[in-house]
Amino acid sequence: MAGHVMNKAFILAVLPALALLALLALLAACDMGSGDNASSASLQGDLAGARIGGAFTLTDQDGKPAAWDDFKGRYRLVYFGYTYCPDVCPVDLQKIMQGFARFEKRAPERAAKVQPMLISVDPVRDTPAVLKTYVAAFHPRLIGLTGSPEQIAAVAKDFAVVYGREDAGGASDYLVSHSRTPYLFDPAGKPIALVPVDNPATADEDEGAPDKVAAFLDQWVK
Fold it and tell me: Were both Cys, which of 17, 37, 128, 194 would link to 31 (CB 3.0–4.6 Å)?
């Protein structure tokens, strides 16, 4: 898990976002305490009302401009990561996109309303050409988005994602520590809930992660 060993500066930077997510999780847990609140939580999702997301224009894996508003009317399945990530990113993306593929097989018309996307937190190395090969390995519907370092920093801030470069020996040899925040947004671009890809307690549960993602999409995508 070397790619995600957080240094002190990164831990200090990540605390506000982690506190926000922890608070959202706590509120969701508290809402489940009574029948009426539980029903409301199940209808709204644990990120309902959160100030996450915002308009942007980045570059897709084909080198073309891609704006957040281009996907109006579609659910947006958003993951922040990078192609050189040695461990967590490919595992998370595999779970998410396998789950999406299962949902797609069961409910193709609803799955067609979902746009999965990977937004790079390593724009220097993640060129469109690099992203094109990478996203194709997970699912043909997955798109990759990159941009200038300034563009990515602005998008990450809007989406409550924190990240930081960790040098590993050379100018081009580095890792990027980042928060794991796979989101589902509704057709209006508002956040619904976090996608369930957290590391499980057992290997059996890990193998069942794609089914959990498929069930999650079945619950929220109408």
Answer: 37
- Torsion of Cα atoms, 105 then 111 then 194 then 102, to 10°: 10
Task: Tell me the pLDDT tens digit for each residue of 131-188.
Answer: 999 999 999 999 999 999 999 999 999 999 999 999 876 656 899 999 988 999 999 9
Task: Show me where the domains of the chain are located.
Answer: 2-220
**How do 173-178 and 75-81 pair as beta strands?**
unpaired
Please report how many Cα atoms fall inside a 13 Å half-sphere around the Cα of residue 36, on the Cβ side. 0
Helices 35-44 and 8-31 cross at an angle (nearest 10°) of 130
Instruction: For domain 2-220, say whether CATH 2.102.10.10 is its number.
Output: no
Q: Is the dihedral of CA 180, 12, 160, 167 positive or negative?
A: negative
* Furthest-apart CA atoms within the chain: distance in Å: 56
Q: pLDDT tens digits, residue range 67-114? A: 999 999 999 999 999 999 998 999 999 999 999 999 999 999 999 999
Contact 197/89 with Cβ under 8 angstroms? Answer: no
